[in-house]
Amino acid sequence: MREFESFEKEIIEVLIELETKNCLNCISNILQDKKIDFFEKPIKFYLSIQNNDISINTYEDLDNLTPEKLNEFTTYINKKLLICIELFKYLEENNYIVSTNGNFGNPFQLGEVIVNQTNTQLDSFVSSGDKEDNMYYFSIYARKIFYVRDKLKELVKNNYVIESERKYQEQVSLTRKQLNLTLLGLGFTFLALLFSTYFNYKQINKDNSQEVIIKNKELNIRTNDNIYKLSKEQFDELTRTINNIKLKVNTECYYYNEDDNLK
User: Fold this and answer.
1) Which of 50, 121, 125, 205 could form a Cys-Cys staple with 135, CB 3.0–4.6 A?
2) Which residues share a beta bridge with 147?
C-alpha cells in the first residue's frame, strides 16, 4: 500500500486546486502556494535552475545564521526535494497526472526573486545527467506543466487509498460478512443440538439413566428400561456440517494470504 506523507498530500491538493482554477500547474506555482510555503521554512530562499543544475540562494545575511540553522535548512531542502521528486514520478508513472514540457527560460527561478537585492548561494546540485540522479529529475519536472486526471481526484475522495487497496478492503469486508453469516449458522445449529440434547436428557432422566456409552460414532445412553441412541447418520450429518465450515474458513484464509503476498 502506498502511504502519502502530509507534504505529499498538500502538493496533491494544490495540484487539483490549480487545475480547478485554470492556473498554470507547474512545480514553481505549487511550491509557492500558501498551503505549502515551501520557500519560507526554515529560512527564506529560492531555487535557480540552469540546464540540469540547481542552486539554492537566499537574501539573508549568512553571518546571522548559526551552523545549527544551516544544518537544519540543508536537511529540510534535501528531504523536501527528494519527496517531491518521488511523488511526481509516482503520480506520472501511475497515470494520476499527465505532463508536457513548458516554455521556461534558462536559467529560471522557483520562488520569490527580489530585483537589485544581494543574494548568497547556499548550496548547489550539479547534475551528472544520469537518470539515477534524483536532482536531475527535479530539474526535468520543474520545467513541466501538469494536468490532473480524474483518477487523482478519486484518490483524494477515497482518503488517499489507492484503487487496488480499496478493492482489497471491500473484498475483506465482504468475506468477513460471509464468515459472520457462517458462524451465525453454526450458532443456530449448535443451539438446535443443545435443545435437542436437553429435551432428550429430560426424557432419559425420567428413566433413571445408568450408563452412557459412545461406540462406533453412536451415542448410547442405557437406562433401567430403555436405550437411547444418537445414530451414526446424525453424527455424520453433524460432522459434515462442521467440516464444511472448516473448509470455508480455511479457503478464505488462503485467499487472505494470497492477497497479502500480491501486495
Assistant:
1) 125
2) 98
Output the CA–CA distances (angstroms, integers) from residue 244 to 31, 127, 175, 229, 250, in the order listed.
Answer: 58, 64, 16, 25, 10
| Chain segment 136-157, per-residue pLDDT in tens | 888 889 999 999 999 999 999 8
For residue 76, how many other CB atoms are within 10 A of its CB? 15
- Please report, to the nearest 10 degrees, the dihedral formed by the alpha carbons of residues 192, 196, 201, 207 taken in order: 170
Asked if 36 and 18 touch (Cβ cutoff 8 Å), the reply is no
Set of cell numbers at residue 116? 537589485
The pLDDT tens digits of the residues spanning 185-198 come to: 776 676 666 666 65
Q: What share of the chain is helix, strand, coil (3-state, %, to 5)?
A: 55, 20, 25
Segment holding 113, helix H or strand E: none
Please, is 87 exposed, middle or buried when counting C-beta atoms within 10 Å of its C-beta (0-12, 13-18, 19+)? buried
38-68 residue pLDDT tens? 887 778 888 988 888 888 888 888 788 888 8
Query: Do residues 255 and 175 lie in contact, with contact meaning Cβ atoms separated by under 8 Å?
Result: yes
Residue 10 in contact with residue 36, Cβ under 8 Å? yes
Contacts of 45-48 with C-beta under 8 Å, sequence gap 24+, read 45/73, 45/77, 45/111, 45/122, 46/109, 46/110, 46/111, 46/112, 46/113, 46/119, 47/109, 47/110, 47/111, 47/142, 48/107, 48/108, 48/109, 48/110
